[in-house]
Design a protein that fits this description.
Layout: E1 3-4, H1 8-16, E2 25-27, E3 60-65, H2 75-89, E4 114-126, E5 136-137, E6 145-146, E7 151-162, E8 168-181, E9 188-204, E10 209-219, E11 225-226, E12 234-244, E13 254-264, H3 272-278, H4 284-289, E14 296-306, E15 313-325, E16 351-359, E17 367-377, E18 392-403, E19 409-414, E20 428-434, E21 445-448, E22 457-458, E23 464-466, E24 473-480, E25 487-493, E26 532-538, E27 545-553, E28 564-568, E29 574-578, E30 584-590, E31 593-600, E32 607-613, E33 618-625, E34 634-636, E35 640-643, H5 661-672, E36 677-685, H6 692-711, E37 720-726, H7 737-743, E38 745-753
Parallel strand pairs: 1-11, 2-9, 20-26, 27-33, 36-37
Antiparallel strand pairs: 3-19, 4-7, 4-18, 5-6, 7-8, 8-9, 9-10, 10-12, 12-13, 13-14, 14-15, 15-16, 16-17, 17-18, 20-23, 21-22, 21-24, 24-25, 27-30, 28-29, 28-31, 31-32, 34-35, 35-38, 36-38
Amino acid sequence: MKRVGLLIPALLCQLALPNSANAQAQVDARGSLGVGGSSDANASATSSAPSTAAAGSGTTTATAAGAAGAEAAPADEITKEWAERDRKLDESATLTGGIGLLHTQHAQGGAVGQFRVAFTTEYMSAGFLCSSEFPCPNPRAAGTSLTSDNNDHIGGHLTLSMQVLKWLEPYLSTSAYANSNSANRPTLLQVLGDSTLGAKVHAPLNKVFYVGGAAELWLVNGTGSVGLDGGGTSAKFRALGTADLRGMQKRIPLRFSLNTTYVLDNTGEVVKDTETARGTPITRIERYGLNINRVDHFDINIGAEVFAVQDRIRPFVEYGIAIPINRQDYRCRPNNPSNDKCLANNAVAPSSLTVGSRFFPWKGGFNVTAALDIGITGVGNFIEEVRPTPPWMLYLGAGWAFDTKDRPTTIVQREIVQGPPTKSGRKIHGFVHEEGKSEGVANAIVSWDNHPELTSLATGADGHFLTQELEEGPYAFGIRAEGFKPGQCTATVVREGSGPAAPPPPAPTGHGGSAASQSVSAPTGPQLHGDIQIDCALQALPRAGTIVGHVKDADTQAVVPNATVKVIDVAKKELSGAVDGSGNVRFDQVAPGAAQITVDAEGYLALTEQTDVKPRQDNNVDLLMKKRPKTSNVSVTKGEIIIKQQIQFALDSATILPESNGLLSEIADVLIKNPRIHKIEVQGHTDNTGTPEHNKALSEDRANAVVTWLGTHGVASDRLVAHGYGQTKPLVPNVTAGNRAKNRRVQFIITDQDAAPAGAAKPKLP
């Protein structure tokens, strides 16, 4: 028996379950591709204000432009719109499509232009279809029965949905699953890719209550052939209601949804020819494995969802029941081969309880789902018209939503009123720059030391600032800028033509820097007629940083005692120190830029790290040291550094594999602790696989890769020379795979060294 449909989820099932030695019954699955979406997320908008404030009307304007040149809109409207779009982006779909929980759809949708895709797996393993009350015919011994079985189930659902209108969400889905049951022949039943096309409409009644409806066309493939079985085509008609308490005046992080669905279920038609050929209905095991119902059903699903941890975690619970309705007028025989009961005499409505949670680990529409179905009714009491309910089903899945609408950039411009028009009609035009240099200092904050009622200013990109028209009298400005000592400027405003200016007030204490009056003109920038020009020079802070090292054991995170640390900064200045009792060490006045840190401690391999020192701040570096192995892989002889293992590279590549990092760390440690070894030739060798030219180039690249690794881990580059010999110097003949492996090697030949320490029998590791 075969039902073949969409193949992507089907392949997952086939890979998950081994093929039976017996024949396989393959059947198409029902499913739906649909994803929903919504979740609270913070809206983002980029705001910028001009750096120089000037007198104005005090009005605020905002403009917004999308990537495609959207028309201007008020900033608050843009912020509100994108807060709502971001909230709706963080939603996911049911197994059959449409925004919702696992089985229950919400009467809500996403924002127009949002797409959602999700994949959910399901798994169950339990023997529940054969019992003493409901024995199964033994397929391997006619006339006997089985009272136990072992059923394994695995499947997958792939859904896709889109919000095309504010009230319309179409979706589609496909699913596939497989069941292996020891009490059936064949043991493996597969349902390969039935498809569902669906659409949901929804609308709000107010900020809390929502209503909607959905319709799905269920396309079922035929049995024993490829293609749709027209008689098996089914449909679902669903009414939706949702109460989202997040919309209440006092927000409550809860949401409830109710679905009522009438299912026109014609799946029994796909096995009609098989049953006619057999002369009997299919078995209970086949009915479960092939997802066959003889009758329609009216489904009721209720779901509740909690929003926690800023809506990043959303636990939920659902209850669903399917009430059979015999529209097909199916006549069940009381003495059927499966010993099942009949709906006419034993009314059973399958039901299940679902507990689970969705997780949104970061913004951007990605989510993870974990849930468990628990069968309540229909698990151990079987009727011939209805598919049995499994005792449990585990679901794990992930989904992703994305927004096709470009996010606009919002620019907010404010004109700050700094005071009423003044009587003198004169302004102060200042220029802030580094002492001894003509370049202006941008974004310096200029405060009014003796007029706190006036709003502070900020210099422009050229270092200039301009006040509003000011009253006559003295003015003192405090200047602050990142990377500079605080400074001060002073000026005295007099009415034009009224005589010389009064002397400026003395500089207040606590500012430092330099002071200037209106008699000093700015060296650059516009000269405005009648403005008072002042020059404000600032002293630059030293451009140096601090390295704060934390030396720890890489495996235990314990403090490494008595470790010594050496730093060489970008200016080649060398600093050294020892860790304190907490494993910390501090180096001040380190030149900004790339710095090399080397750490040494008894019982540990020497460690070298690179860091980028940023000026005027603490640069924290974790220095994780590895203990020296009890049995060393590296030894020093008279003319060579011997390694007991080989450095591993990717196939036909000079990329060093991570498993060789430990060995290379030991080699670096030996070279760092043996300064008497002045020069090493790092030799690369290959076997004879490939052309000599290719092998020569490969060996050169591998030798250079090793030199580069050692150079970045504390070994001076002038001590290392790379040379590739290709296949010209084999250790053993290249006649076996083992011999070729020996010939693929890196050797470290000592070409220049001081004499070994006096009295030493032979060189040893430090």
